[in-house]
């Protein structure tokens, strides 16, 4: 009888542990909130940053060649709109960072940048920096001096890195890296591909080696072959660099954009040098223009998941937003979770917006003027 009681006690404990694991393993829900309406279309320039130094993330968006706004986060259903400035010399590229080193986050939008006054009542000052009219903008420290440089790309002008210098109010020094394509370095195409300690750059179907380590000379490697190579939007993609399989080197995650039926994959950096790659297909012929790509641990299980959203070329019936759960943590098995329905999603950005310990998503539409917030309910429902 004693052994039988012990056996049933073990069964009860095991069942309880299994039930706990199943509850914890549930993928989080996301709640949709409208942030606001800009009354202008063609929204780009996505960034999340703490613009008012209040320890939470605010959202920056801007219209093509026009106005830039920032939305102050107060609560999930309460965002206050502020205007950063007008006459942005950019297509859809824009990035927020501290340009002048004064401790306040500024906004760079292609050939213009706007100085954060440090409070919410004063106007932002506009400067012209000599940067190209940009489809994509990202930042990285390419010369290891502790300050970021700006990457700018357009299919017409090419791909450049800009060095800001001690007087950012004047034109920035530029170095041409290569040809431009209609999207291929945003949101995070910069990283140490060859494991030599400096920052390299991926542009859709090629990567550029920062061969002197200071951003002044770049060598092209044509070892990444994935995106479409013909048509009006040839070689267009969204790109993110991260260690997807946890082996200590940088891999490339990529989604086809500006296509009515995009594909998504990650390219394993087999030799850690960027020469030998193995492509892991995540989704093919999705019937979506995969114009949003966010890489983060959305379920707090210690590995990287992927968010993809449907851009403007997606048919109205197919506009969706999915998180692809990295089931085993090595990028070999993926489970799709729909978190956005019949909503356009252009260049989404991810971060812990409400400061509760899980990763949220902000995005906006292109064909109309809606800006929205996808709140990760993982911690609220825990």
Task: Describe the overall structure.
This protein is mainly beta and 382 residues long. 6% of the residues lie in helices and 42% in strands. It is built from 1 helix and 29 strands. It has one helix spanning 2-24, and strands at 30-37, 43-49, 58-63, 68-75, 78-85, 95-97, 106-109, 112-115, 125-128, 136-140, 149-154, 158-163, 173-178, 187-188, 190-191, 200-203, 206-210, 218-221, 237-242, 251-256, 264-269, 277-283, 290-296, 305-310, 320-326, 334-341, 349-351, 360-364, 370-376. The strands form 7 sheets. The protein has a 5-stranded mixed beta sheet, with no helix packed on it. A hairpin with an 8-residue loop joins β19 (237-242) and β20 (251-256). The radius of gyration is 22 Å and the shape is globular. The chain starts with a helix and ends in a 6-residue tail after the last strand.
Helices and strands, with pairings:
Blueprint: H1 2-24, E1 30-37, E2 43-49, E3 58-63, E4 68-75, E5 78-85, E6 95-97, E7 106-109, E8 112-115, E9 125-128, E10 136-140, E11 149-154, E12 158-163, E13 173-178, E14 187-188, E15 190-191, E16 200-203, E17 206-210, E18 218-221, E19 237-242, E20 251-256, E21 264-269, E22 277-283, E23 290-296, E24 305-310, E25 320-326, E26 334-341, E27 349-351, E28 360-364, E29 370-376
Parallel strand pairs: 14-19
Antiparallel strand pairs: 1-29, 2-3, 3-4, 4-5, 6-7, 7-8, 8-9, 10-11, 11-12, 12-13, 15-16, 16-17, 17-18, 19-20, 20-21, 21-22, 23-24, 24-25, 25-26, 27-28, 28-29
